[in-house]
Task: inverse folding
């Protein structure tokens, strides 16, 4: 993702403006109005954790995407922001935004103000405002998707995203107990992403671009050392020697975290989790 302010005389004729911090289905519909000569401007605020870190947004973007830091523009008036926009996009003919788009100092300007600025000072630039988008009566909005994920409703969140919610992290050394006494797992560190509700999930684990059916756990290992972990077991697959980074895609929440009396009881529960994960993965439809 390139810096917008570091780029000059960009050739694009249309631009979509917003945070786009989840790249959900409403965002993709908004992008569809840009045409082949469009680009996307993502306003970043560096607030962690994230649904989709900036460096991965280009993977889900149909067009070139640029970023601009909120700190660099939050002092500008509405008119000054549009002037900045047209300076870097001199061929601009169309601006596309969502119904709740705000801009200018203290978010003082709305789409109504944007329309007035364009009509009075930039009549050559058209404005397209995307109406509120819904999924089964629920407003497609990043804040709702975040709430769904935090509450374990990853299957509904995936429908709104139009893809599987994934987190990426570096492989780290685990407790070592799984391979010896339970089921072997791969442990990962998470820094950037919003973590789903603690518990057990049917998942897909991506290693070097290949997806493995898996069952994953997020939370504190209350039956052993009580340490927080994110660990995943590859179903019916011998775990390859893994280093670097992996991704875990969350398909369905299976159960809450629970304390077990002994390792045998825990192992029996994991066996059931694997069966439940297989069923969930077989019936998964996005």
Result:
């Amino acid at each position: 993702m390139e810096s917008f302010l570091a780029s000059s005389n960009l050739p694009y004729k249309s631009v979509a403006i917003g945070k786009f911090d989840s790249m959900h289905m409403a965002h993709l519909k908004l992008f569809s109005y840009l045409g082949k000569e469009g680009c996307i401007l993502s306003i970043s605020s560096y607030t962690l954790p994230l649904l989709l870190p900036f460096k991965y947004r280009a993977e889900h973007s149909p067009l070139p995407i640029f970023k601009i830091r909120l700190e660099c523009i939050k002092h500008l008036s509405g008119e000054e922001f549009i002037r900045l926009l047209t300076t870097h996009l001199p061929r601009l003919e169309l601006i596309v935004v969502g119904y709740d788009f705000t801009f200018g100092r203290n978010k003082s300007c709305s789409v109504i103000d944007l329309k007035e600025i364009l009509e009075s000072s930039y009549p050559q630039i058209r404005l397209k405002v995307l109406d509120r988008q819904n999924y089964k009566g629920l407003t497609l909005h990043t804040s709702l998707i975040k709430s769904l994920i935090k509450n374990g409703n990853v299957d509904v969140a995936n429908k709104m995203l139009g893809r599987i919610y994934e987190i990426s992290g570096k492989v780290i050394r685990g407790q070592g107990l799984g391979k010896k006494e339970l089921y072997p797992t791969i442990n990962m560190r998470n820094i950037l992403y919003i973590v789903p509700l603690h518990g057990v999930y049917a998942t897909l684990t991506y290693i070097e671009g290949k997806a493995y059916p898996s069952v994953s756990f997020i939370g504190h290992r209350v039956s052993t050392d009580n340490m927080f972990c994110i660990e995943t077991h590859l179903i019916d697959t011998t775990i390859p020697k893994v280093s670097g980074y992996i991704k875990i895609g969350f398909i369905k929440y299976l159960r809450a975290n629970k304390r077990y009396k002994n390792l045998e009881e825990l192992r029996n529960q994991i066996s059931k989790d694997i069966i439940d994960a297989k069923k969930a993965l077989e019936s998964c439809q996005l």
Summary: The chain has nine helices and 14 strands. The chain has a mean pLDDT of 93. The chain has two domains: 2-132, 154-282. The domain at 2-132 is CATH 3.40.50.620 (Rossmann fold).
